[in-house]
């Protein structure tokens, strides 16, 4: 390499390092442009981290999508603020006679270290013959891919543990074990279930949290598990709640409000809690959707650092905040 090339490379590396070191700003509720300048389409989403990179998957509700298909988009980021569009990893026509109104929601991706496969779970729904609701099928779907942002192949749909399943959430414990969270209406509860070795199946019930909640999410923080969820009010926001337990299997505490109930979680609904651990601090980010049911492509995201610890969890009022991915520190501006 000649000197100029070396200098250019060093400057580029320095630039990248400086860009990474600078705290970034997150603006809850605002339009969130990706690297193409388009609002991120990752509704009801989930995030996994591979190396230093975060991947955000969610429902892609772009206005120009083919209305007969269902889409999941994948974005990547190293700082959780600047997102690069990677691919519409699912562009799926009805794979299994679910019917014209079929639904694909809340996709969540797990990486299976044994099979080296990426396994996506999603809420699959549709209208069963003779049923009033478009959400009577109540199944999960599974799709797989060899790369994180490739084209996922739909494998199957089923009712986990034989139960009706609607909103799903994902939880990966600190030891790497992977769990599916799913809401089951007839049982009026929120299941935490362990995935099979290859993640292609839901193997074992760990707990049925006895509370009618959806949008379920769990985080493990300072020795306690915190579970959050929303009430069953469809697209309309409601006061989301949390409970704690020392083990996933419970017993779980009673559920309490995460924010002043009259704000209806500031107009949002939970989808995930993301733990960012750095050398200086651990920040737990509440990730939620501000749904716009009539113009879904405009649905916004409410991400805020939670006040969490000693069995308490509180969502501060939405405001601009900064995150330093290199230290783990967050500060509300
Ligand atoms: C919500 C659910 C969303 C979507 C919506 C449809 O309760 O969390 O993911 O299914 O209902 O009304």
Give the overall form: globular
Q: What is the total tally of β strands?
A: 24
State the helix count. Answer: 2
Query: What order do the helices and strands follow?
Result: HEEEEEEEEEEEEEEEEEHEEEEEEE
The poorly predicted ranges are none
SSE class: mainly beta
Q: Please state the second-level CATH architecture.
A: 5 Propeller
Global mean pLDDT: 94
Radius of gyration, taken over Cα atoms and rounded to an integer in Å: 20 Å
Largest sheet descriptor: 4 strands, antiparallel
What name is given to the CATH topology? Answer: Tachylectin-2, Chain A
Write the CATH homologous superfamily. Answer: Glycosyl hydrolase domain, family 43
Work out the strand percent. over 45%
Describe this structure in words.
With 333 residues, this protein is mainly β. The chain has a single domain, classed as Glycosyl hydrolase domain, family 43 (Tachylectin-2, Chain A). It is 7% helix and 47% strand. It has helices spanning 3-21, 264-267; strands at residues 24-26, 43-50, 53-59, 69-77, 84-93, 103-112, 117-125, 139-145, 153-158, 168-172, 178-184, 189-195, 202-209, 214-221, 224-230, 241-245, 256-257, 269-277, 282-290, 300-305, 307-309, 312-314, 321-324, 329-332. The strands form 7 sheets. The protein has a 4-stranded antiparallel sheet with strand order 2-3-4-5, with no helix packed on it. The protein is globular and about 50 Å long. It starts with a helix and ends with a strand. The mean pLDDT is 94. Beta-D-galactopyranose binds at residues 44, 105-106, 167, 214-215, 234-235, 269.
